[in-house]
Design brief:
The protein has 12 helices and no strands. By secondary structure, it is an all-alpha fold. The protein has a domain of 72 residues: Tetratricopeptide repeat domain (Serine Threonine Protein Phosphatase 5, Tetratricopeptide repeat). The chain is elongated, with a radius of gyration of 27 Å.
Length: 271
């Protein structure tokens, strides 16, 4: 009896798989219908469904007229679905296989946006978080992506926004170096602290962090007993403050802005 049951069970399993395959409503859809439906799902915020349709479109019609656009759109859909790794992989794939395509600028810009948001975190949307204390890896990647857009595609619609984001990222990267320098001060690694401060001076000129870097260098040189270097650095700081070369730190304004956002978000009257 058991010998007869196994073939029957196997046949039922095969029939079930076949039934599930037949339930794919997109079977037989044209590339235009797949693309139109995917666009509609994306616009409605149904990102997972949009991703599924874009991937079906690419798999079934790899050389169709919507293939390139679907590859870009699926990267954006992954970005909106908060799946950064998949979004970056999709954008990189497009860049690799279509290096001369006019939309490559957008692919780099999208990579920059993905990494930019990775460097922020959810709390930074509502709280006055010092973003320079976060891991600088994603911020560096974002800066490089936006730099690619600015340098290679300066006349595109994405270049101006990329420049603004690069400035923001550059300020935070400079602050991050100062945080590391101050950590070295606390650990008694005064030579490393001075070197880190000097790195900011050399690589992040015209950022608010320059003032902090000079102050760290003064403290490090003083702790090392290098009074001549400490005094020289004090003179440099004083001259820059007097000439107005030191850029004001915008963090106080940012904190006020975050506070306003909180009140607006919860619909409260601050007064």
């Amino acid at each position: 009896m058991s010998r007869l049951l196994w073939p029957l069970l196997f046949a039922l399993l095969l029939g079930g798989c076949s039934f599930l395959q037949d339930k794919d409503e997109t079977k037989g859809w044209s590339q235009q219908k797949l693309y139109t439906e995917a666009q509609a799902e994306l616009a409605s915020g149904n990102y997972e469904r949009a991703i599924d349709l874009y991937e079906k479109l690419e798999a079934r019609y790899p050389f169709g007229k919507y293939a390139h656009q679907a590859q870009l759109d699926v990267a954006y859909a992954y970005y909106k679905a908060e799946e950064p790794e998949s979004a970056l992989a999709a954008a990189d794939r497009f860049i690799k296989f279509h290096p001369g395509h006019p939309a490559v600028a957008y692919a780099y810009y999208l990579k920059g946006l993905v990494n930019f948001n990775r460097s922020l975190g959810i709390l930074s949307r509502f709280l006055p978080t010092d973003l320079s204390q976060r891991d600088a890896g994603a911020a560096l990647d974002s800066y490089k992506d936006f730099k690619e857009v600015v340098e290679r595609f300066p006349d595109t619609d994405y270049a101006e926004d990329a420049r603004k984001r690069m400035l923001y990222l550059r300020n935070n990267l400079a602050r991050q170096e100062v945080h590391v320098a101050r950590y070295y001060i606390k650990r008694g690694a005064f030579v490393a602290a001075a070197e880190r401060g000097n790195y900011v001076i050399e690589n992040y000129q015209r950022t608010p962090a320059v003032k902090d870097a000079l102050e760290v260098m003064i403290e490090a040189y003083t702790r090392l007993g290098l009074n001549d270097l400490a005094n020289d650095t004090r003179r440099v700081l004083a001259l820059n403050l007097k000439s107005g070369a030191i850029i004001p730190d915008p963090r106080e304004l940012e904190e006020k802005s975050w506070s306003r956002k909180l009140w607006d978000y919860f619909g409260l009257d601050k007064n």
